[in-house]
Design brief:
Layout: E1 8-13, H1 17-30, E2 40-45, H2 82-90, H3 102-121, E3 127-132, E4 136-141, E5 147-151, E6 156-159, E7 161-164, E8 169-170, E9 183-185, H4 190-197, E10 204-207, H5 211-222, E11 229-233, E12 240-241, H6 270-286, H7 291-297, H8 300-307, H9 313-327, E13 330-331, H10 333-344, E14 348-352, E15 360-362, E16 368-370, E17 374-376, E18 378-381, E19 385-386, H11 399-406, E20 423-424, E21 430-432, H12 444-463, H13 469-487
Amino acid sequence: MSQQYNTKTITIIGGGLSGLTVFYEQVKAYQNAPQDAPAVEINWIEKSGNFGAGIAYNADDDVFLLNQPAKLMSPFADDPQHFTRWLEKNDPGSDEDSFVPRRLYRRYLDELLNDALETAKQSGGKLKTSLISAEADDLTPQQNGSYRVTLKSGLTIKSDAVVLTTGHLQNRDWQHLQGVPHYQQSPFHKADIAREVNTATGNIGIIGTGQSMMDCLATLEALGTKEKIYLFSRDNILPWEFDPKKFGEDAPRYELQFLTPDKLDSNSCFDVLKQAFAKEIKNAEAEGFTLGHVLTGFDKQGFLKAAAHHPQGDDIRKFTGLIDKYYANPTTPERFRLFQKLQNNGQVEIIRQDINADTLRQDADGGFTIGGKIKIAHLFNSAALGRSAFDKNGLAVDKLARAADKADALARHPKDKASIRPGKQNCAGLYVTGPQTNATRWGVETFREHSRDAARDALSYVLTLPETKNHQENRKENNHVKDRKISAGTHRV
Protein backbone atom coordinates (compact mmCIF):
# COMPACT_ATOMS: atom_id res chain seq x y z
CA MET A 1 0.00 0.00 0.00
CA SER A 2 1.43 3.38 -0.94
CA GLN A 3 2.41 5.92 1.67
CA GLN A 4 0.27 8.56 -0.05
CA TYR A 5 -2.80 6.30 0.07
CA ASN A 6 -2.30 5.71 3.78
CA THR A 7 -1.96 9.38 4.88
CA LYS A 8 -3.86 10.19 8.08
CA THR A 9 -5.06 13.70 8.94
CA ILE A 10 -5.24 15.73 12.16
CA THR A 11 -6.81 19.20 12.34
CA ILE A 12 -5.98 21.66 15.10
CA ILE A 13 -8.44 24.54 15.39
CA GLY A 14 -7.18 27.63 17.22
CA GLY A 15 -3.85 29.35 16.71
CA GLY A 16 -2.90 30.53 20.20
CA LEU A 17 -0.50 29.05 22.71
CA SER A 18 -2.49 25.84 23.27
CA GLY A 19 -2.68 25.28 19.53
CA LEU A 20 1.06 25.84 19.18
CA THR A 21 1.78 23.43 22.04
CA VAL A 22 -0.34 20.71 20.42
CA PHE A 23 1.27 21.34 17.01
CA TYR A 24 4.80 21.26 18.43
CA GLU A 25 4.19 18.16 20.56
CA GLN A 26 2.71 16.25 17.60
CA VAL A 27 5.56 17.16 15.25
CA LYS A 28 8.16 16.11 17.83
CA ALA A 29 6.28 12.94 18.78
CA TYR A 30 6.05 11.85 15.14
CA GLN A 31 9.84 11.71 15.07
CA ASN A 32 9.58 8.67 17.36
CA ALA A 33 6.91 6.92 15.29
CA PRO A 34 7.81 3.49 13.86
CA GLN A 35 9.45 3.43 10.43
CA ASP A 36 6.36 1.78 8.92
CA ALA A 37 3.96 4.32 10.45
CA PRO A 38 1.57 5.92 7.97
CA ALA A 39 2.18 9.44 6.71
CA VAL A 40 0.40 12.19 8.64
CA GLU A 41 -0.81 15.62 7.64
CA ILE A 42 -1.48 18.22 10.35
CA ASN A 43 -3.83 21.03 9.38
CA TRP A 44 -3.70 24.01 11.75
CA ILE A 45 -6.48 26.57 11.37
CA GLU A 46 -6.42 30.12 12.79
CA LYS A 47 -8.75 32.87 11.61
CA SER A 48 -6.34 35.76 12.30
CA GLY A 49 -3.41 34.17 10.50
CA ASN A 50 -1.36 34.92 13.61
CA PHE A 51 -0.15 31.47 14.62
CA GLY A 52 1.24 30.92 18.12
CA ALA A 53 0.75 34.24 19.92
CA GLY A 54 -3.03 34.34 20.19
CA ILE A 55 -4.64 37.28 21.99
CA ALA A 56 -2.48 37.12 25.10
CA TYR A 57 1.00 37.39 23.56
CA ASN A 58 0.41 39.69 20.61
CA ALA A 59 1.24 42.86 22.57
CA ASP A 60 3.03 45.73 20.79
CA ASP A 61 5.10 47.16 23.68
CA ASP A 62 7.26 45.97 26.57
CA VAL A 63 4.91 47.62 29.05
CA PHE A 64 2.73 44.51 28.77
CA LEU A 65 4.22 41.86 31.06
CA LEU A 66 3.55 38.19 31.59
CA ASN A 67 1.25 37.46 34.53
CA GLN A 68 3.51 34.68 35.78
CA PRO A 69 7.27 34.45 36.48
CA ALA A 70 9.41 32.90 33.77
CA LYS A 71 9.81 29.60 35.64
CA LEU A 72 6.08 28.90 35.13
CA MET A 73 5.95 29.81 31.43
CA SER A 74 7.31 26.73 29.68
CA PRO A 75 4.53 25.27 27.52
CA PHE A 76 6.04 21.80 27.88
CA ALA A 77 4.97 19.62 30.80
CA ASP A 78 8.00 17.35 30.29
CA ASP A 79 10.45 20.26 30.22
CA PRO A 80 9.33 22.97 32.70
CA GLN A 81 12.66 24.84 32.37
CA HIS A 82 12.49 25.14 28.59
CA PHE A 83 11.59 28.84 28.60
CA THR A 84 14.04 29.81 31.36
CA ARG A 85 16.89 28.21 29.39
CA TRP A 86 15.86 30.19 26.33
CA LEU A 87 15.65 33.33 28.47
CA GLU A 88 19.21 32.88 29.75
CA LYS A 89 20.49 33.02 26.18
CA ASN A 90 18.18 35.72 24.82
CA ASP A 91 17.67 38.08 27.78
CA PRO A 92 20.58 37.60 30.25
CA GLY A 93 19.25 40.32 32.54
CA SER A 94 16.22 38.20 33.43
CA ASP A 95 16.01 35.10 35.59
CA GLU A 96 13.43 32.46 36.47
CA ASP A 97 11.61 34.84 38.81
CA SER A 98 11.32 37.65 36.25
CA PHE A 99 8.02 38.82 34.79
CA VAL A 100 9.23 39.44 31.26
CA PRO A 101 7.47 41.39 28.49
CA ARG A 102 4.85 39.54 26.49
CA ARG A 103 6.54 40.73 23.33
CA LEU A 104 9.69 38.85 24.32
CA TYR A 105 7.65 35.73 24.98
CA ARG A 106 6.19 36.13 21.50
CA ARG A 107 9.74 35.84 20.11
CA TYR A 108 10.10 32.57 21.99
CA LEU A 109 6.83 31.23 20.58
CA ASP A 110 7.85 32.23 17.05
CA GLU A 111 11.07 30.24 17.46
CA LEU A 112 9.10 27.19 18.64
CA LEU A 113 6.89 27.41 15.56
CA ASN A 114 9.86 27.68 13.21
CA ASP A 115 11.55 24.76 14.97
CA ALA A 116 8.46 22.58 14.52
CA LEU A 117 8.16 23.48 10.83
CA GLU A 118 11.83 22.69 10.20
CA THR A 119 11.45 19.36 12.02
CA ALA A 120 8.47 18.45 9.83
CA LYS A 121 10.50 19.21 6.69
CA GLN A 122 13.10 16.65 7.79
CA SER A 123 10.56 13.81 7.81
CA GLY A 124 11.18 12.93 4.18
CA GLY A 125 7.68 13.93 3.20
CA LYS A 126 5.95 11.63 5.68
CA LEU A 127 4.82 14.51 7.91
CA LYS A 128 3.16 17.42 6.16
CA THR A 129 1.96 20.58 7.87
CA SER A 130 -0.54 23.14 6.61
CA LEU A 131 -1.13 26.46 8.39
CA ILE A 132 -4.50 27.72 7.16
CA SER A 133 -5.58 31.33 7.71
CA ALA A 134 -9.33 30.89 7.81
CA GLU A 135 -12.20 30.81 10.27
CA ALA A 136 -13.62 27.41 11.14
CA ASP A 137 -17.39 27.78 11.21
CA ASP A 138 -18.68 24.27 11.90
CA LEU A 139 -17.51 20.88 13.15
CA THR A 140 -19.48 17.75 12.27
CA PRO A 141 -18.71 14.13 13.21
CA GLN A 142 -19.20 11.80 10.22
CA GLN A 143 -20.69 8.32 10.19
CA ASN A 144 -17.36 6.83 9.10
CA GLY A 145 -15.68 8.15 12.25
CA SER A 146 -13.96 11.13 10.66
CA TYR A 147 -14.80 14.84 11.10
CA ARG A 148 -15.83 17.54 8.66
CA VAL A 149 -14.59 21.06 9.44
CA THR A 150 -16.48 23.72 7.51
CA LEU A 151 -14.72 27.03 6.97
CA LYS A 152 -16.61 30.33 6.92
CA SER A 153 -16.08 30.46 3.16
CA GLY A 154 -18.10 27.24 2.86
CA LEU A 155 -15.13 25.06 1.96
CA THR A 156 -14.58 21.91 4.02
CA ILE A 157 -11.68 19.91 5.43
CA LYS A 158 -12.10 16.28 6.43
CA SER A 159 -9.98 14.91 9.23
CA ASP A 160 -9.43 11.67 11.13
CA ALA A 161 -8.93 13.58 14.40
CA VAL A 162 -9.63 17.13 15.60
CA VAL A 163 -8.08 19.02 18.52
CA LEU A 164 -10.04 22.10 19.62
CA THR A 165 -7.73 24.77 21.04
CA THR A 166 -9.98 27.77 20.41
CA GLY A 167 -8.64 29.55 23.48
CA HIS A 168 -10.14 32.46 25.38
CA LEU A 169 -13.77 33.22 24.66
CA GLN A 170 -15.27 36.68 24.37
CA ASN A 171 -17.51 37.63 27.29
CA ARG A 172 -21.02 38.17 25.94
CA ASP A 173 -21.96 40.75 28.58
CA TRP A 174 -20.62 43.62 26.46
CA GLN A 175 -21.34 42.53 22.90
CA HIS A 176 -23.61 45.55 22.47
CA LEU A 177 -20.56 47.83 22.82
CA GLN A 178 -18.60 46.32 19.93
CA GLY A 179 -17.71 49.09 17.48
CA VAL A 180 -18.89 51.90 19.74
CA PRO A 181 -16.55 54.96 19.64
CA HIS A 182 -14.32 55.48 22.71
CA TYR A 183 -14.73 51.83 23.76
CA GLN A 184 -11.85 49.34 23.50
CA GLN A 185 -12.20 45.63 24.12
CA SER A 186 -9.13 43.73 25.39
CA PRO A 187 -6.71 46.71 25.39
CA PHE A 188 -3.43 44.88 24.62
CA HIS A 189 -1.89 47.44 22.28
CA LYS A 190 -0.22 50.61 23.52
CA ALA A 191 -0.69 52.40 20.21
CA ASP A 192 -4.47 51.85 20.35
CA ILE A 193 -4.69 53.05 23.96
CA ALA A 194 -2.59 56.14 23.16
CA ARG A 195 -4.73 56.95 20.14
CA GLU A 196 -7.88 56.72 22.22
CA VAL A 197 -6.78 58.86 25.19
CA ASN A 198 -5.51 61.52 22.77
CA THR A 199 -8.91 61.94 21.13
CA ALA A 200 -10.42 63.87 24.05
CA THR A 201 -9.93 64.76 27.70
CA GLY A 202 -12.04 63.32 30.48
CA ASN A 203 -12.36 60.49 32.96
CA ILE A 204 -11.10 57.05 32.03
CA GLY A 205 -12.99 53.90 32.95
CA ILE A 206 -11.62 50.36 33.07
CA ILE A 207 -13.99 47.42 33.38
CA GLY A 208 -12.50 44.72 35.60
CA THR A 209 -9.79 44.67 38.26
CA GLY A 210 -7.79 41.66 37.11
CA GLN A 211 -4.39 41.23 35.54
CA SER A 212 -5.35 42.81 32.21
CA MET A 213 -6.48 45.90 34.12
CA MET A 214 -2.96 46.17 35.50
CA ASP A 215 -1.55 46.07 31.96
CA CYS A 216 -3.92 48.86 30.93
CA LEU A 217 -3.09 50.88 34.05
CA ALA A 218 0.66 50.51 33.46
CA THR A 219 0.20 51.60 29.85
CA LEU A 220 -1.72 54.73 30.89
CA GLU A 221 1.05 55.50 33.40
CA ALA A 222 3.71 55.07 30.70
CA LEU A 223 1.76 57.46 28.46
CA GLY A 224 1.79 60.07 31.23
CA THR A 225 -1.98 60.09 31.66
CA LYS A 226 -3.16 62.44 34.43
CA GLU A 227 -6.90 61.93 34.03
CA LYS A 228 -9.01 60.35 36.74
CA ILE A 229 -9.24 56.58 36.33
CA TYR A 230 -12.25 54.62 37.61
CA LEU A 231 -11.94 50.86 38.02
CA PHE A 232 -15.28 49.05 37.89
CA SER A 233 -15.39 45.70 39.64
CA ARG A 234 -18.31 43.31 39.92
CA ASP A 235 -17.00 41.55 43.04
CA ASN A 236 -14.28 43.94 44.30
CA ILE A 237 -11.52 41.35 43.97
CA LEU A 238 -8.31 43.35 43.64
CA PRO A 239 -4.79 42.31 42.55
CA TRP A 240 -2.41 41.05 45.22
CA GLU A 241 1.38 41.19 45.20
CA PHE A 242 3.11 38.06 43.97
CA ASP A 243 6.85 38.05 44.58
CA PRO A 244 8.16 34.57 43.60
CA LYS A 245 11.02 34.84 46.10
CA LYS A 246 8.49 35.05 48.94
CA PHE A 247 6.71 31.88 47.83
CA GLY A 248 9.62 29.63 46.93
CA GLU A 249 10.34 26.26 48.52
CA ASP A 250 12.73 27.78 51.05
CA ALA A 251 10.50 30.76 51.94
CA PRO A 252 8.70 30.87 55.33
CA ARG A 253 5.17 29.47 55.28
CA TYR A 254 2.12 30.93 56.95
CA GLU A 255 0.08 28.42 58.94
CA LEU A 256 -3.62 29.23 58.66
CA GLN A 257 -5.38 29.59 61.99
CA PHE A 258 -9.03 30.22 61.12
CA LEU A 259 -9.63 28.96 57.54
CA THR A 260 -9.00 25.26 57.98
CA PRO A 261 -11.39 22.35 57.33
CA ASP A 262 -11.38 21.33 60.98
CA LYS A 263 -12.82 24.76 61.91
CA LEU A 264 -15.97 24.19 59.85
CA ASP A 265 -19.13 23.76 61.91
CA SER A 266 -22.89 24.06 61.47
CA ASN A 267 -22.65 27.87 61.44
CA SER A 268 -20.13 27.98 58.57
CA CYS A 269 -22.30 29.83 56.08
CA PHE A 270 -20.84 32.00 53.31
CA ASP A 271 -20.82 35.23 55.36
CA VAL A 272 -19.21 33.53 58.34
CA LEU A 273 -16.49 32.11 56.09
CA LYS A 274 -15.87 35.56 54.60
CA GLN A 275 -15.43 36.93 58.11
CA ALA A 276 -12.96 34.16 58.91
CA PHE A 277 -11.11 35.03 55.68
CA ALA A 278 -10.81 38.68 56.73
CA LYS A 279 -9.64 37.61 60.17
CA GLU A 280 -7.05 35.28 58.61
CA ILE A 281 -5.67 38.06 56.41
CA LYS A 282 -5.36 40.39 59.37
CA ASN A 283 -3.57 37.72 61.41
CA ALA A 284 -1.20 36.90 58.54
CA GLU A 285 -0.27 40.56 58.08
CA ALA A 286 0.41 40.87 61.82
CA GLU A 287 2.91 38.02 61.45
CA GLY A 288 4.61 39.65 58.45
CA PHE A 289 2.83 37.64 55.75
CA THR A 290 0.46 38.72 52.98
CA LEU A 291 -2.86 37.89 51.36
CA GLY A 292 -0.92 35.71 48.91
CA HIS A 293 0.31 33.50 51.75
CA VAL A 294 -3.27 32.98 52.92
CA LEU A 295 -4.39 32.08 49.41
CA THR A 296 -1.54 29.69 48.69
CA GLY A 297 -1.98 28.03 52.09
CA PHE A 298 -5.73 27.53 51.72
CA ASP A 299 -6.74 23.85 51.70
CA LYS A 300 -9.23 23.88 48.83
CA GLN A 301 -9.52 20.11 48.52
CA GLY A 302 -10.04 19.76 52.26
CA PHE A 303 -12.90 22.29 52.13
CA LEU A 304 -14.52 20.62 49.11
CA LYS A 305 -14.27 17.22 50.74
CA ALA A 306 -15.92 18.58 53.89
CA ALA A 307 -18.63 20.28 51.82
CA ALA A 308 -19.80 16.94 50.40
CA HIS A 309 -21.36 15.95 53.75
CA HIS A 310 -21.85 19.35 55.41
CA PRO A 311 -25.23 21.06 56.00
CA GLN A 312 -23.68 24.28 54.64
CA GLY A 313 -22.09 22.45 51.70
CA ASP A 314 -23.33 24.86 49.02
CA ASP A 315 -21.99 27.87 50.93
CA ILE A 316 -18.62 26.16 51.44
CA ARG A 317 -18.34 25.46 47.72
CA LYS A 318 -19.34 29.03 46.95
CA PHE A 319 -16.61 30.27 49.28
CA THR A 320 -13.94 28.08 47.67
CA GLY A 321 -15.01 29.63 44.36
CA LEU A 322 -14.38 33.06 45.85
CA ILE A 323 -10.90 32.00 46.96
CA ASP A 324 -10.25 30.74 43.43
CA LYS A 325 -11.05 34.19 42.06
CA TYR A 326 -8.63 35.84 44.47
CA TYR A 327 -5.96 33.24 43.77
CA ALA A 328 -6.22 33.89 40.03
CA ASN A 329 -5.47 37.62 40.41
CA PRO A 330 -1.77 38.05 41.34
CA THR A 331 0.36 40.89 39.97
CA THR A 332 4.05 41.67 39.95
CA PRO A 333 5.65 43.59 42.85
CA GLU A 334 6.34 46.50 40.47
CA ARG A 335 2.73 46.59 39.27
CA PHE A 336 1.42 46.27 42.82
CA ARG A 337 3.44 49.30 43.90
CA LEU A 338 2.05 51.27 40.94
CA PHE A 339 -1.47 50.25 41.90
CA GLN A 340 -0.95 51.41 45.48
CA LYS A 341 0.62 54.71 44.34
CA LEU A 342 -2.27 55.57 42.04
CA GLN A 343 -4.78 54.70 44.73
CA ASN A 344 -2.97 56.73 47.38
CA ASN A 345 -2.67 59.86 45.22
CA GLY A 346 -6.34 59.67 44.30
CA GLN A 347 -5.91 59.18 40.55
CA VAL A 348 -7.44 55.69 40.73
CA GLU A 349 -10.78 55.04 42.39
CA ILE A 350 -12.38 51.61 42.68
CA ILE A 351 -16.13 51.38 42.17
CA ARG A 352 -18.03 48.20 42.93
CA GLN A 353 -20.39 48.20 39.98
CA ASP A 354 -21.54 45.59 37.51
CA ILE A 355 -21.32 47.01 33.99
CA ASN A 356 -24.18 45.93 31.73
CA ALA A 357 -26.83 47.40 29.46
CA ASP A 358 -28.79 48.65 32.49
CA THR A 359 -25.92 50.42 34.27
CA LEU A 360 -24.09 51.90 31.27
CA ARG A 361 -25.51 54.67 29.09
CA GLN A 362 -24.01 56.08 25.92
CA ASP A 363 -24.12 59.87 25.95
CA ALA A 364 -24.74 62.26 23.08
CA ASP A 365 -21.20 63.66 23.42
CA GLY A 366 -19.71 60.23 22.66
CA GLY A 367 -18.88 59.34 26.25
CA PHE A 368 -20.62 57.17 28.80
CA THR A 369 -22.46 57.48 32.09
CA ILE A 370 -22.09 54.57 34.49
CA GLY A 371 -24.40 53.88 37.39
CA GLY A 372 -26.35 57.03 36.57
CA LYS A 373 -23.67 59.38 37.90
CA ILE A 374 -20.07 58.74 36.77
CA LYS A 375 -19.11 60.37 33.47
CA ILE A 376 -16.53 58.49 31.41
CA ALA A 377 -14.83 59.77 28.25
CA HIS A 378 -12.85 56.61 27.45
CA LEU A 379 -13.88 53.07 28.38
CA PHE A 380 -11.44 50.13 28.31
CA ASN A 381 -12.67 46.59 28.90
CA SER A 382 -10.05 44.45 30.63
CA ALA A 383 -12.63 41.77 31.44
CA ALA A 384 -13.65 41.05 27.85
CA LEU A 385 -12.51 37.44 28.00
CA GLY A 386 -15.02 35.08 29.57
CA ARG A 387 -14.14 32.16 31.82
CA SER A 388 -17.12 29.88 31.32
CA ALA A 389 -17.29 27.52 28.33
CA PHE A 390 -21.09 27.41 28.73
CA ASP A 391 -23.67 30.17 28.97
CA LYS A 392 -26.43 30.45 31.57
CA ASN A 393 -28.62 28.16 29.47
CA GLY A 394 -25.99 25.44 29.42
CA LEU A 395 -25.07 26.00 25.76
CA ALA A 396 -21.42 26.00 24.71
CA VAL A 397 -20.23 29.56 24.02
CA ASP A 398 -17.76 28.58 21.30
CA LYS A 399 -19.62 27.72 18.10
CA LEU A 400 -17.44 24.71 17.29
CA ALA A 401 -17.86 23.30 20.79
CA ARG A 402 -21.59 23.95 20.44
CA ALA A 403 -21.69 22.01 17.17
CA ALA A 404 -19.83 19.10 18.78
CA ASP A 405 -22.14 19.24 21.80
CA LYS A 406 -25.20 19.13 19.55
CA ALA A 407 -23.83 15.89 18.12
CA ASP A 408 -23.28 14.54 21.66
CA ALA A 409 -19.54 14.54 21.01
CA LEU A 410 -18.58 17.01 23.75
CA ALA A 411 -17.88 15.98 27.34
CA ARG A 412 -18.64 18.16 30.38
CA HIS A 413 -15.96 18.54 33.03
CA PRO A 414 -16.80 16.11 35.87
CA LYS A 415 -16.10 18.67 38.63
CA ASP A 416 -16.46 22.07 36.94
CA LYS A 417 -19.85 22.65 35.31
CA ALA A 418 -18.53 25.77 33.55
CA SER A 419 -15.83 23.84 31.68
CA ILE A 420 -15.29 21.14 29.07
CA ARG A 421 -13.52 17.97 30.13
CA PRO A 422 -9.88 18.22 28.98
CA GLY A 423 -8.57 15.69 26.49
CA LYS A 424 -10.62 12.99 24.80
CA GLN A 425 -14.30 13.77 24.26
CA ASN A 426 -17.35 11.52 23.84
CA CYS A 427 -16.54 10.71 20.22
CA ALA A 428 -13.28 9.00 19.28
CA GLY A 429 -10.81 11.34 17.60
CA LEU A 430 -12.04 14.57 19.22
CA TYR A 431 -9.92 16.34 21.86
CA VAL A 432 -10.13 19.69 23.70
CA THR A 433 -7.46 21.63 25.56
CA GLY A 434 -6.88 25.21 26.70
CA PRO A 435 -8.93 27.80 28.63
CA GLN A 436 -12.29 26.17 27.89
CA THR A 437 -11.25 23.27 30.12
CA ASN A 438 -10.67 25.36 33.26
CA ALA A 439 -13.01 28.18 34.30
CA THR A 440 -11.16 29.03 37.52
CA ARG A 441 -7.50 29.15 36.63
CA TRP A 442 -5.64 30.36 33.54
CA GLY A 443 -1.95 30.26 32.80
CA VAL A 444 0.51 28.26 30.74
CA GLU A 445 1.21 25.74 33.49
CA THR A 446 -2.53 25.10 33.86
CA PHE A 447 -2.95 23.61 30.38
CA ARG A 448 0.42 22.23 29.32
CA GLU A 449 -0.17 18.67 30.56
CA HIS A 450 -3.59 18.55 28.91
CA SER A 451 -2.17 19.96 25.66
CA ARG A 452 0.66 17.42 25.66
CA ASP A 453 -1.72 14.53 26.30
CA ALA A 454 -4.28 15.71 23.73
CA ALA A 455 -1.52 16.09 21.13
CA ARG A 456 -0.02 12.65 21.71
CA ASP A 457 -3.36 10.90 22.11
CA ALA A 458 -4.63 12.35 18.82
CA LEU A 459 -1.46 11.30 17.02
CA SER A 460 -1.54 7.79 18.49
CA TYR A 461 -5.20 7.51 17.55
CA VAL A 462 -4.69 8.27 13.85
CA LEU A 463 -1.55 6.13 13.62
CA THR A 464 -3.51 3.07 14.74
CA LEU A 465 -6.54 3.64 12.49
CA PRO A 466 -7.07 0.92 9.88
CA GLU A 467 -6.63 2.07 6.30
CA THR A 468 -9.83 2.72 4.32
CA LYS A 469 -10.71 4.42 1.07
CA ASN A 470 -11.99 7.34 3.18
CA HIS A 471 -8.40 8.46 3.77
CA GLN A 472 -7.75 8.71 0.04
CA GLU A 473 -11.01 10.62 -0.49
CA ASN A 474 -10.28 12.94 2.44
CA ARG A 475 -6.80 13.71 1.15
CA LYS A 476 -8.08 14.56 -2.34
CA GLU A 477 -10.82 16.83 -0.99
CA ASN A 478 -8.47 18.59 1.47
CA ASN A 479 -5.90 19.27 -1.23
CA HIS A 480 -8.63 20.74 -3.40
CA VAL A 481 -9.81 22.94 -0.51
CA LYS A 482 -6.32 24.18 0.31
CA ASP A 483 -5.52 24.96 -3.34
CA ARG A 484 -8.63 27.13 -3.52
CA LYS A 485 -7.95 28.73 -0.12
CA ILE A 486 -4.32 29.48 -1.00
CA SER A 487 -5.47 31.47 -4.01
CA ALA A 488 -7.74 33.42 -1.64
CA GLY A 489 -4.89 34.35 0.67
CA THR A 490 -4.57 31.38 2.99
CA HIS A 491 -1.00 30.39 3.87
CA ARG A 492 0.28 26.88 3.52
CA VAL A 493 3.73 26.22 4.92
